[in-house]
Amino acid sequence: MAIKEDVERGSHGVREEVSVPLLREDNDMADKEDEYSEQTSNKTSLWKVYFSTFVAVCGSFEFGSCAGYSSPTQAAIRNDLSLTLAEYSMFGSILTFGAMIGAITSGKIADFVGRKGAMRTATGFCVGGWLAIYFAQGALVLDFGRLATGYGMGVFSYVVPVFIAEIAPKNLRGALTTVNQLMICTGVSVAFIIGTVLNWRTLALTGLIPCAILLCGLFFIPESPRWLAKIGRKKDFEAALQDLRGKDADISKETAEIRDYIETLERLPKAKMLDLFQRRYLRSVIIGVGLMVFQQFGGINGICFYTSDIFESAGFSATIGTIIYAILQVVITGLNTTVIDRSGRKPLLLVSSTGLVLGCILSGISFYLKDHNLALNAVPILAVTGILVYISAFSAGMGAVPWVIMSEIFPINIKGVAGSLATLVNWFGAWAVSYTFNFLMSWSSCGTFIIYAAINAAAILFVVAVVPETKGKTLEQIQAAINA
Q1: Most buried residue, 105, 118, 125, 448, by CB count within 10 Å?
Q2: 8, exposed or middle or buried, with CB in 10 Å at 0-12, 13-18, 19+?
């Protein structure tokens, strides 16, 4: 089967019909499935894929360290530097603005200097940011450091899942990309735990450890083969793919498929932001951006940032609740990596969104009962159950899977621009929800959770109607089917 596309050349309106053998005949597909299965069954031949993933997710751990830093350090920083609440609030929130700037530029950087170059850039900003925080004697330098680490977070949030998706075999891609979210959760939890025993300056120095591992590791892993093919480095492309698949693996079919697809895309005009809304790309953009909207506007950052306050408002121990919350988040995200390539992306999203609706409803009921002085003994149990169901459901799918799908669906000629847009929407949503959460809770605690329940219910409909299943397909097959 072939895909026929209209290809525009240059600024002229000349069109030609190009037939691209992206989707093979059924028997050819079966042969390819068998070949890839044979290649990936030998784990020793894929050690470079696993090692490259480990190096890349040090960036994810750094992401989590940046995000988790402000929670355990608030009192100490305010006392040592005599900051007002408004000054510390600026320190906490400026991270998100840095991340939005990083998101806007992440795709361009990754396309210009490569995926490894983008990770080095992000690491440099994080190192500078942590050192600024460590040496800070006032609010200005402190905020500059926080802004720099936020920028690094924004770049990491795009380039790490994209790099992993581009190096991994299709039957491991989901699991390995999900490790990104697992390491973010782990970084947040570690920062929270060790922040209770280390002073805030020493905690800032611990953020340099994943940076050091990442910078050293990048010298020993290959660049993304698909990026090398895109910029025309043919020999480097084949060498990188051979290195990732094992020296004895037959990469001829995979090489040909990647090269054919990229050669076709390269005939298209260079993508700009407005080009994303052309008919050929619109569905992939709707899927990628839509999932980011539902991931954030379903309430995760408001609930995550104010977990302690929610537990206290419901009359439950904030310390115990937060510890259980952190452990559940890491454990369930870890389990998710083992099932995503067997169960598929779409079922996980549906189960996750359903659990989010249930968690919001339980929490909403608990606050309704409290506001009306009904069954007060049940309020703490319902609130804790609702929040724990919520975070369990989020970790089971909606936390990681949107990033996995985002890394899979965009053709490489628009991946930089489209990925930046999706990441920017994600960070804007994170800021908007965390900023409005307290205002909504002041208006109506019950109503806040009902609003989030309604958004998560809409996410179920979106997944059913719009999101495709990408399990077991090459990136080229996924993109050809979506953008046909």
Answers
A1: 118
A2: middle
Q: Is 216 exposed, middle or buried (0-12, 13-18, 19+ CB in 10 A)?
A: exposed
Are 204 and 133 spatial neighbours (Cβ–Cβ below 8 Å)?
Answer: yes
Predicted confidence (pLDDT) at residue 48 exceeds the cutoff of 50? yes
Q: Are 133 and 146 in contact, with CB atoms under 8 Å apart?
A: yes
Cα torsion angle, 393, 405, 233, 235, sign = positive
**Tokens at residue 390, please?**
């919520």
> b/e per residue, 292-301, with b = 16+ CB within 10 A?
bbbbbbbbbb
If residue 437 lies in a helix (H) or strand (E), which one and from where to where?
helix 415-443
Binning pLDDT at 50, 70 and 90, where does residue 448 land?
A: very high
- Counting Cβ atoms within 10 Å, is residue 315 exposed (0-12), middle (13-18) or buried (19+)? middle
How far apart are alpha carbons 245 and 113 in whole angstroms?
24
The pLDDT-based confidence of 10 (bands split at 50, 70, 90) is very low
Q: Residue 273, exposed/middle/buried by CB under 10 A (0-12, 13-18, 19+)?
A: exposed
118: its two tokens:
């983008």
Band of residue 305 on the pLDDT scale cut at 50, 70, 90: low
Instruction: Count the Cβ atoms, other than its own, within 10 Å of residue 465.
Output: 7
CA 465/CA 458 separation, integer angstroms: 11
The reported pTM is 0.76
Q: How far apart are the first and last CA of the chain?
A: 12
Conformation bin of residue 10: beta by default, left when phi > 0, alpha when psi is -120 to 50:
left
pLDDT tens-place string over residues 137-149: 999 999 999 999 9
